[in-house]
Amino acid sequence: MSIEATMLKRCESKCELCAAEAPLTAYAVPPHSHVTVDQGIMVCDKCLGEIDEPKDINHWRCLGDSMWSQVVPVQVTAWRQLTRLNSESWAQDSLDMMYMEEETQNWAMQGMSDDDKPLDVNGVELKKGDDVTVIKDLPIKGTNQVIKQGTVIRGISVGDDPKLVSGKTNGGQSMYVIAEFCRKK
Fold it and tell me: Comparing C-alpha atoms, which of 8, 100, 17 is closest to residue 51?
């Protein structure tokens, strides 16, 4: 039996991410470049077209089901998509519930580019709810004001731009800050 036939049997001819009964394509989960049963998944055209850059955010709500798959490359792909969408509360909730073995987690993180996640000055990934400290005085665009070094921003949020984080200071002022000018507390 061919690799693709084995994978089609495994997924019962449904997309392994959204369960669509549409034409399927074998997809090698990065960093792998060759499709094998242990390194690939079967996906529909919709998922394939958005797998590197999700656009239809509501489409990816399907990950709430597929993240529980026993198929490791499906878990890896679901985790990556949820991480890219973690500014959505439902995606962050799913990530908070998701469990993966350490080896699977390492594979999932290995395939993420630094452009996909906010990193602090030390290269530590920042996640929703973290507290950060501003590491240098930062001018606020369009004003004469400055965010002082040492300012603590509590319970940050991560938006569509992974270079920015937002949150409130102790004084209750909301702000956006470039992640690389922060240090995780």
Answer: 17
Between these two residues, 48 and 126, which has the higher pLDDT value?
Answer: 48
Measured CA to CA, the distance from residue 126 to residue 74 in angstroms comes to 24
Select from 151, 184, 178 the least CA-distant residue to 162: 178
Instruction: Please state, rounded to an integer, the average pLDDT across all residues of the chain.
Output: 88
Structure tokens at 145: 């004001």
pTM for this entry? 0.64
CA 54 to chain centre: 10
SS (H, E, C) 133-144: EECCCEECCCCC
Burial 141-151 (b: 16+ CB within 10 A, else e): eeeeeebeeeb
